[in-house]
Design brief:
Elements: H1 2-21, E1 44-45, E2 64-65, H2 83-90, E3 93-97, E4 100-101, E5 105-107, E6 114-115, H3 117-130, E7 136-140, H4 146-151, E8 157-158, H5 166-169, E9 172-174, E10 179-181, E11 183-188, E12 203-207, H6 211-218, E13 224-228, H7 231-239, E14 245-249, H8 250-259, E15 263-266, E16 273-275, E17 278-280, H9 284-299, H10 302-310, E18 325-326
Parallel strand pairs: 2-18, 3-7, 3-8, 12-13, 12-14
Antiparallel strand pairs: 1-13, 4-5, 5-6, 9-17, 10-16, 11-14, 11-15
The protein binds glutamic acid.
Length: 328
């Protein structure tokens, strides 16, 4: 009896094998269109409004920073008892940056080095302190992690497409503005959508902790905000058809368009996003120093060179660098 069963199993196996071998075509193909596409880790739909401190942001001019104190000290000779001297003595500037935003802060896949407009700014600060633009320890921070990294003293500066807002000024200081971006919309090429108002009931992606996600959530058309940890997660969700659009700064969206010609920016800018360098609240001396570095970077043509290198490839003409505004 056992022998009969064994030979039946053998015959069944033979039939199964011949089903594949037959005329050379595989059988029983899995229905690949039904495979579920993975959602980026941490993606959240309709997130609760950010907890934050409940007090409203005080009225302020978020673009106004602290005036530099005269000429910059020579590199390698930071004045005693200053934040800059402590950084010089440590031997490295510690900078919070992004590694997922092509053109501003991204990892070059062939060299593994961090590159982009924001990374160039970090190197200018290091050059002013040490005379060497490479004396930097980069720490990758998410949009949502920027303020905490500064408050906990994990980094000396955050240079990460960060909009200076009155709400953020409550917790940290900002340098003068080094770039002015604006929020726009990214959609599939061929889409008719040109504004957030047309996306009622649809999913729109932005990073957690960004000004962009708040603007999406506040739109009266009642969109479904989808928040993720990294901008590259939004790009993937749009490419996989999991969201109808991405909406954030035109700078970040330009980097996505450069990576995927099937996408396009639609409609005009609908916010102003002035970028400042984040600095811990206590380090006003560092803010003044960094503002001196920004003036030098703009005046000696370094800003324009960096703009041409990273944003020149996105078309359009180079804007004038922002004019610094100070509090006094
Ligand atoms: N500039 C916006 C912000 O600071 C969006 C960019 C980002 O989060 O990286 O929130």
């Amino acid at each position: 009896m056992r022998a009969v069963r064994a030979s039946l199993v053998f015959v069944a196996l033979l039939l199964a094998v011949s089903a594949c071998a037959g005329d050379g075509r595989p059988v029983d193909l899995a229905n690949v269109t039904s495979v579920e596409r993975p959602t980026p880790v941490g993606a959240e739909e309709n997130p609760p409004a950010s907890s934050g401190t409940s007090a409203p942001a005080p009225d302020c001019d978020p673009k106004a920073s602290f005036r530099p104190d005269g000429a910059l000290p020579p590199a390698g000779q930071m004045p005693p008892r200053t934040t800059m001297r402590a950084i010089q003595d440590r031997g490295q500037l510690i900078a919070g940056v992004d590694q997922n935003t092509f053109l501003f802060g991204f990892r070059n896949p062939t060299t593994n080095a961090l590159e982009g407009f924001d990374i160039d700014i970090v190197r200018q600060i290091a050059k002013a302190i040490f005379g060497d633009p490479n004396k930097v320890q980069f720490k990758v921070v998410t949009s949502a992690g920027r303020i905490k990294a500064l408050q906990e003293g994990d980094v000396d500066v955050v240079v990460r497409t960060m909009t200076a807002t009155c709400e953020r000024w409550k917790d940290i200081n900002f340098s003068a503005i080094y770039y002015t971006a604006g929020q726009r919309l990214l959609v599939d090429r061929g889409s008719e959508v040109t504004s957030l108002d047309q996306l009622g009931g649809q999913k729109v992606c932005a990073a957690k902790g960004s000004t962009s996600i708040k603007t999406i959530a506040a739109n009266p058309a009642k969109l479904i905000p989808v928040q993720v940890d990294n901008w590259s997660d939004c790009l993937i969700m749009l490419q996989q058809g999991q969201v109808a659009a991405v909406s954030t700064d035109d700078t970040i969206l330009a980097g996505m368009v450069a990576q995927d010609p099937n996408l396009t920016m639609a409609g005009p800018r609908f916010t102003e996003e002035p970028y400042g360098i984040g600095i811990p609240k206590a380090n006003v001396d560092m803010v003044k120093f960094v503002n001196g570095v920004l003036v030098k970077t703009i005046n000696d043509g370094t800003w324009a060179k960096s703009y041409d290198k990273w944003l020149g490839q996105t078309g359009g003409s180079r804007p004038a660098p922002p004019t610094p505004v100070y509090r006094d």
